[in-house]
Amino acid sequence: MKMCFWNCAKAYNQADFGAALSDLREVDHKAAGAFLACNPTLFCRAFISTRSKTDVVVNNMAETFYAYIIEARYKHLLYMLEDIRTSIMTRLVSKKAEMEKLTVTVCPRVQARLEEAKKKSVEYSIFSSTTTLFQVKQGIDEVNVDLVARTCTCKRWDLTGIPYSHAVAAIFEIHGQPEDYVDDMYKKEAFLGAIMVQLPPCPSQRHWPKVEMTSTAHNKRRCPDKDRVVEPPAKRGRGRPRSINSQREEVATTSTQPHHALTAQPTRIRRGGRMIMAGRGTTRGRGAGRGTTRRRGSGRGRVNSSTYSLPSVFSIL
Fold this sequence. Notes:
The protein is mainly α. It has helices spanning 2-9, 14-27, 29-37, 60-68, 77-101, 108-120, 156-160, 165-173, 188-194, 244-256, 259-263, 310-316, and strands spanning 125-128, 133-138, 141-146, 151-152. A hairpin with a 4-residue loop joins strand 1 and strand 2.
């Protein structure tokens, strides 16, 4: 199943991806379902954007850098950063000198991949459609190669920017050089331009300039403002704002009545928490008109809300 997984992850096109997924289903149907549940479009080559010009689907580049700074990672923060800076500073100089000595057009590792593609290109049959568009055949498999758009049906050239054996065979058909069709990011000039950055040397702490500190006693424990409370900005309440009259009534109520008179009398609170002022607010019973309560045997009289008994209040709420 491990090999089936890597075949799915490293497939360059949809056809190869489907074939590898079918092989995985034959080995274990549940494993194939678990593989699809992980959203293969995020880590399989068949779904990577062709703008990236890379076919890397693992984190080997990060692991290589971690191994390069393995000794510095266990030091104190300041010394760790200094060791990393020194290593990168010297590495830039050595890589630049090494690349300037080479006479190749593209980077050495890219040139090695081109040499492998050149050896494999002799296995294909070439059918020309135009001087730049070809049909390349190997056995029962056929792909199209466009030298102007620099694309191939297998998608390897599209994804990496490096001509694969299909494209190399088409390039040899017009007596061209595969190195001329490599993406510019893999050229020698691009590599030298990327490492032209120079890191300046830095002396040890012993030679650093002395600076007069203006607040040497200022720290977290002795900060004069450590007990000062910073009030957060007021948040706007949800819902529609209340009317001006209701706000005035609330202000007048809170200013004339004590706190316990507003919170300890459940008979004075309507639904929603609004207060019922004594002598003014009334509650509507079933079948009664606005502002009145109808009882059996009584007329349409107005009843003060402050005279309600406790059971009648609970039945209303």
